[in-house]
Protein translocase subunit SecE
Amino acid sequence: MNKFKTYYKNAKDELFKVIFPIKEQIRSAYLSVFIVVTVITLFLALIDTVMSLSLSSVIN
C-alpha cells in the first residue's frame, strides 16, 4: 500500500509540473502544421500529375 501512495504522490507532483500552451501558441502551431501539410499536398499533387502525364505519353 505504501508503494501505491508513493506512486500516486509522484504522479500528482508531475502533473503540477505540466505547462499547458496558451491560445497564441496553439494558434501558431496549428497555422504552421496547416501550411506544411498544404505545401506537401501541393508538391505531391504536382509529382502525381507529372508522373501521370509522362506515363500516359509513354503508353500512347
